[in-house]
Amino acid sequence: MFFHVAQHAPHAIPHAAPYVAPTVNSGSVIAGLIMGGVSSLICLAIVVVCLVSLWKIMVKAGKPGWAAIIPIYNIIVLLEVVGRPIWWLILLFVPIVNIVVAVILALRLAKVFGQSVGFAIGMILLPFIFYPMLGFGDAKYLGPDVA
Question: Has residue 3 been placed in a domain?
Answer without folding.
Answer: no
